[in-house]
Amino acid sequence: MFTENIKTELNENVLTITINRPDSYNSLSTATKYELADAFLRADKDPHVKAIILTGAGEKAFCSGQDLSESKDLDEEAAEGWIEEFDHLYRVVRKVKKPIVAAINGYAVGSGLQLALLTDIRISNRTAKYGMTEVNVGLPCVIGATMFWEVMGKSKTVDLILTGRLISAEEAKEYGLITRIVNDDELQEKAFELAKELASKPPTAIMLNKRRFNQLSEQEFNNCMNYAVEAHTIGYASGEPQEAMKQFFEKRKN
Questions:
Q1: 218-250: b or e for each residue (b if 16 or more CB lie within 10 Å)?
Q2: What average pLDDT does the segment 97-121 reach?
Q3: 121 with 102: CB under 8 angstroms?
C-alpha cells in the first residue's frame, strides 16, 4: 500500500513500513508523521501482522529527521503544536504490542534517530551515520537527549548533543544505539530474517515484555515531552532556529 509519503508491504506476516521521501532524505513532514502513526496503528490491529520493519527508501537515509522546510518558518506560538505532532507519533510507536525492527540504511539523525530508538531492535548497514544534529540549526534536543541518556548515560549524551556531530555505525554500536551491523547489501535480508524470528515468538509474551520496557521509561518520557514544549517555545522566541535554518538553506543553494 502506498500513501503520499510512506509505503507498506506485508510478506509472511512481516509488515515493512518504508518512509518514501528519498528526495528529502526521508525527512519527517507533518503529513509523514501522521501517515506513519496511522500505519503503526493499523499494523498493531491487523491479525496478519506479527512483526514490523521500519526503514527508509533509497540508499542515502533511513530518516534525516524533521523536514526543515516546514520548521524554518515556525515561531514560539506554533512550537507546542509542532511538538504535539512528535508526541502523537512517538506514543503510537511506543504502544505497539508487536516487535519492531529498524533497518537503518544511511543517515539516521535528529528525530529520525529518535524514531529508530523507539523501535525494539536496530540493525544497521556499515555506512550509516548517526547523530542528534539539532543544535546545528539552533534547536534544543530535549527528546533526543532523554533517549540518549537512557541508552548511553551522561558523558556520551552531553558530547553528542552539544557538538551535534555524526558518528559511524561502529561507534553507534559501541554506544548502544544499535545492536547489529551488516553489510549494506545484506541489510533488508537480515532485517527480514530477524523480524521473522520475532514474529515466531509467542505474541502475549512479546507484548508483556514491551509493556514493561515502556513502564520503565514512561515517567521520564512524559517529563521530556512537557519540557520540549517549553524549550522549543523559548528557542523559537529567540529567533536562533529561524536564522540557522535560513543559513542552512542558503548554503544548499550554493
A1: eeebeebbebbbebbbebbeeeebbebbeeeee
A2: 98
A3: yes
Q: Helical H runs in 96-141? A: 111-117
The predicted-structure confidence for 9-29, as pLDDT tens digits, reads as follows 999 999 999 999 999 999 999
193 pLDDT exceeds 70?
yes
* Category of 123 on φ-ψ map: left (φ > 0), alpha (ψ -120 to 50) or beta: beta
Residue 110: which of 82, 75, 147 has the closest Cα? 147
For residue 108, the cross-strand partners are 63, 130
Cα(112)–Cα(131) distance, rounded to whole angstroms? 9
Phi/psi at 216 (5° precision): -65, -20
* Average pLDDT score over residue span 77-104: 94
Look-up of cell digits 537503518: 104
55 pairs with which residues across the strands? 18
pLDDT of residue 90: 98
Kindly report whether the global pTM for this prediction surpasses the value 0.90: yes
Strands 121-125 and 107-109, by their bridges, are: unpaired
* CB 52, CB 96: distance < 8 Å: yes
